[in-house]
Design a protein that fits this description.
The structure is a single chain. It is extended and about 45 Å long. With 71 residues, it is mainly beta. A hairpin with a 6-residue loop joins β2 (33-40) and β3 (47-52). It has one domain (21-71). It has a 4-stranded antiparallel β-sheet, with no helix packed on it. The chain has 1 helix and 4 strands, in the order αββββ.
Length: 71
């Protein structure tokens, strides 16, 4: 990324100091609640969604839109 010729570096001050890969089926504690990682494998590799059963909430991107199924 440092060698890329674009305005990316001017808009992002620094690389993260650590990285944690999310995998399908993992659980994460966020805000005191358990969220399950659900991967969709379509036009975006490893498109992650998060589901909290306790809240009945799914946080996702476009992989759940009707008429827009993953490839």
């Amino acid at each position: 990324m440092q060698q890329r010729r674009s305005n990316y570096r001017s808009r992002v001050p620094a690389f993260p100091s650590e990285y944690r890969r999310l995998m399908d089926g993992d659980t994460q504690r966020i805000g005191g609640r358990t969220w399950k990682v659900i991967m969709g494998y379509g036009h975006a590799p490893e498109h992650a969604a998060l589901y909290c059963e306790e809240l009945g909430v799914l946080i996702s991107g476009d992989m759940v839109l009707p008429g827009f199924p993953p490839m």
